[in-house]
């Protein structure tokens, strides 16, 4: 993509980044100034409280010893591993990624992954499996307005380690296999209202054979962005041949790409700016040997990618064990400007440790489920740069997984993976706020800003980059100076 591409509102990419990235950060830091944003400045800013919403207050210990929540919030356990589904079979274990869809008669339909291998105490027993020897797959829960389960059933079976995935704009769930073999390591499309149909057992092979984690779709283009849970891992984009965004359209093939960062000569270079700029370049890869191709083409090597979510023009994803303290990083990729940014880098386990599944709240905060050592939490990040806890697993050291909101925004659904439990959570949630969600897409809150050197800050300004973009490039080993 041309770095001088003009945006829809008439700004070119350079101007857009100055306004949406550097400008936002400069305003947040007051009189500090872009050219003086060295690591000391950004480190100090992390100690200063930011204005705006800062969460729902401290967590209250659960007297039942299961799930801690803030004052005023309540939970109901709506599904437990090993108990009976409505068809009489047992609820499978290893609850993981999840999505919520609007159902008939004011119901919510949850689709839930089960991260199971080839053997399990409570496997998925399906009627139309992809591989009868595999224990993983997906189930669905139809939940009434009273947060009671009306129906619970298998939606796909015969897959391995269904970890995360992503909801499609057309109402289906893309379940991803976190494995890689000759016959597994694919994405499958699941329609919760047409359970165990032929589509659910047909792998979308063009979307790659690798250790999939999560994916999300840009509704403006139909492109699918995917993360890989491996070390190292790569960031992929799938461009389907059929962008109609309908059930089965992804099965009609397409091309798979991996993200790289390259220097690009600017034909309009002058003495007033650098002659080279850096940008994300998408390299086409063979879907069956995508890791090998990505490595050969010097694509970005992340530590271990996990959750993903697309909202308000931005693809959010996290790198669970990255950073100097190995606490994780949160990235955002903006397709409209072809911009990769490092939004938040963990430096204190009190605020983030091993980010995994992520989602955006109806009011515009980013929520992160942890999968670290000890007690795991559901943490929130605001556009203003505040970090706050919302839930903590008091029952076990297992991860929290699959955070997703009901279509009306009034109920949060969340899993404890082991022992498998699904919760419906409600209380004084903020009202839906699409403007705040858009703000999160371009915010550069100083409190969370990653540290960069004076040299990188100056190079970023010269090339029209935001500090967050420069930090992403620097962490990928690119010398933009």
Overview of this protein structure:
The structure is a single chain. This protein has 481 residues and is mostly beta strands. It is built from 6 helices and 26 strands. Helix 5 packs across helix 6 (467-475). It is globular, with a radius of gyration of 22 Å. It starts with 12 loop residues before the first helix and ends in a 6-residue tail after the last helix. The relative contact order is 0.16. Mean pLDDT is 88; it is low at 1-50.
Question: Can you tag this structure with a few keywords?
Answer:
6 helices; 5-stranded antiparallel sheet; single chain; mainly beta; 26 strands; 12% helix; 6-stranded antiparallel sheet; 481 residues; disordered N terminus
> What fraction of the residues are assigned to beta strands by DSSP?
25-35%
Helix content, binned percent: 10-25%
The largest beta-sheet arranges its strands as 1-2-23-22-21-20
* Protein structure class: mainly beta
- How many runs of DSSP E, i.e. beta strands? 26
- Give me the number of helical elements: 6
> How can the largest sheet be summarized?
6 strands, antiparallel
Head-to-tail CA distance between termini: 22 Å
Oligomer state equals: single chain
Shape category: globular
Secondary-structure blueprint:
Elements: H1 13-28, H2 39-45, E1 59-60, E2 67-70, E3 74-80, E4 95-102, E5 108-114, E6 136-143, E7 149-159, E8 162-167, E9 173-177, E10 187-190, E11 212-217, E12 224-228, E13 235-240, E14 254-265, E15 276-285, H3 290-296, E16 305-311, E17 314-319, E18 329-334, E19 339-345, E20 355-360, E21 366-370, E22 377-381, E23 387-393, E24 400-405, E25 412-416, E26 421-426, H4 434-442, H5 454-462, H6 467-475
Antiparallel strand pairs: 1-2, 2-23, 3-26, 4-5, 5-6, 6-7, 8-9, 9-10, 11-12, 12-13, 13-14, 14-15, 16-17, 17-18, 18-19, 20-21, 21-22, 22-23, 24-25, 25-26
């Amino acid at each position: 993509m041309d770095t001088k591409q003009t945006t829809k509102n008439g700004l070119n990419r350079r101007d857009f980044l100055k306004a949406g990235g550097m400008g936002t950060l400069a305003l947040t830091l007051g009189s500090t100034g872009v050219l003086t944003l060295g690591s000391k400045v950004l480190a100090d800013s992390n100690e200063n409280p930011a204005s705006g919403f800062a969460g729902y207050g401290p967590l209250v210990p659960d007297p039942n010893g299961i799930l801690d929540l803030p004052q005023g919030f309540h939970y109901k356990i709506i599904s437990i591993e090993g108990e009976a589904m409505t068809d009489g079979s047992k609820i499978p274990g290893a609850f993981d990624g999840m999505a919520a869809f609007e159902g008939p008669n004011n119901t919510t339909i949850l689709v839930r992954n089960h991260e199971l291998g080839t053997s399990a105490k409570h496997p998925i027993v399906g009627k139309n499996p992809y591989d009868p020897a595999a224990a993983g797959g997906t189930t669905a829960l139809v939940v009434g307005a009273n947060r009671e389960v009306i129906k619970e059933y298998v939606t796909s079976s015969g897959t391995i380690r269904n970890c995360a995935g992503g909801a499609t704009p057309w109402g289906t769930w893309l379940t991803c296999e976190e494995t890689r073999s000759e016959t597994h390591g694919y994405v499958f499309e699941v329609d919760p209202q047409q359970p165990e149909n032929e589509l659910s057992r047909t792998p979308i092979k063009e979307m790659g054979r690798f250790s999939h984690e999560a994916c999300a779709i840009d509704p403006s283009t139909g492109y699918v962005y995917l993360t890989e849970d491996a070390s190292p891992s790569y960031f992929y984009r799938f461009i389907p041949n059929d962008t109609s965004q309908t059930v089965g359209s992804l099965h009609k093939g397409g091309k798979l790409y991996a993200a790289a960062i390259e220097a690009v000569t600017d034909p309009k270079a002058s003495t007033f700016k650098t002659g080279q700029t850096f940008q994300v370049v998408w390299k086409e890869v063979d879907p069956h040997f995508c890791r090998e191709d990505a490595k050969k083409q010097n694509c970005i090597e992340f530590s271990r990618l996990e959750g993903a979510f697309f909202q308000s023009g931005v693809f959010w994803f996290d790198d669970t064990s990255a950073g100097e303290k190995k606490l994780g990083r949160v990235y955002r990729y903006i397709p409209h400007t072809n911009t990769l940014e490092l939004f938040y880098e963990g430096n204190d386990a009190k605020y983030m440790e091993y980010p995994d599944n992520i989602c955006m709240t109806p009011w515009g905060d980013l929520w992160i489920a942890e999968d670290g050592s000890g007690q795991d939490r559901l943490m929130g990040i605001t556009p203003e740069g505040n970090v706050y806890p919302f839930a903590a697993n008091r029952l076990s050291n297992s991860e929290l997984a699959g955070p997703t909101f009901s279509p009306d925004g009034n109920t949060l659904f969340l899993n404890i993976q082991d022992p498998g439990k699904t919760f419906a959570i409600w209380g004084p949630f903020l009202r839906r706020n699409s403007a705040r969600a858009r703000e999160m897409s371009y915010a550069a809150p100083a409190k969370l800003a990653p540290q960069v050197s004076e040299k990188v800050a100056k190079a970023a300004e010269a090339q029209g980059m935001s500090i967050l973009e420069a930090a992403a490039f620097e962490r990928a080993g690119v010398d933009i100076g």
